[in-house]
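Incident review: delayed structure delivery

Summary: a single-chain prediction request sat in the queue longer than the usual turnaround. Root cause was a stuck worker, restarted by the on-call engineer. No data loss occurred. The affected request and its eventual output are reproduced below so the record is complete for anyone auditing the incident later.

Affected input:
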Amino acid sequence: MTNVKSPKTARGRVIEDPGIARFLFSDVRFSWVWLVVRIWVGYQWIQASLHKIADPGWVQTGTALAGFWKGAVTVSASGKSNIAFDWYSSFLTFLLNNHAYTWFGKLIAYGEFMVGVGLIVGAFVGIAAFFGALMNWNFIMAGSASTNGFLLVLGIFLVLAWKTAGYIGVDYFLLRWLGVPWTGGEENEQAISPALAPKAGK
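Output delivered after worker restart:
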């Protein structure tokens, strides 16, 4: 009886993803669900950004962001603050002392807008979702819950689904151009070097 070894890469054996993971994050049939998710999340980011872009305290002086940071690092009479970790409080204090809010406010306002546009049109969805999730994480670390936790989870899912989340969108062309095409369901296709492919009788 012929013993056929599992395909290998240069580093060792290939570990297959579970079927449910392949369906959720790699199957283009699920891209319709990611289309709805990314448009909704993108809309939330654009809505949030427009309020900031229209506010001089965010895009001109940065005082709105400075106020948010000061509120986050302020310790109440009971000895508590909105920030649970001292290192993050020190980080925000460092930014405040160096007046980083004068340019950080612009970065956040226009960054939120770019994330929203990227998600809605489906351009570099994984990258846009990553930076969106990063902002959600920072807002949470600064003590602002609101919808940030929910958006963070959805952002992580969009990052995991980067190959198909933008399939119905600009990524359909961008990822092909970058050399990340969809195989069209060819389940046995292996992205390994011919030199590493299993040989008959081995």
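Verification: The longest strand covers residues 8-9.
Action items: add queue-age alerting; document worker restart procedure.
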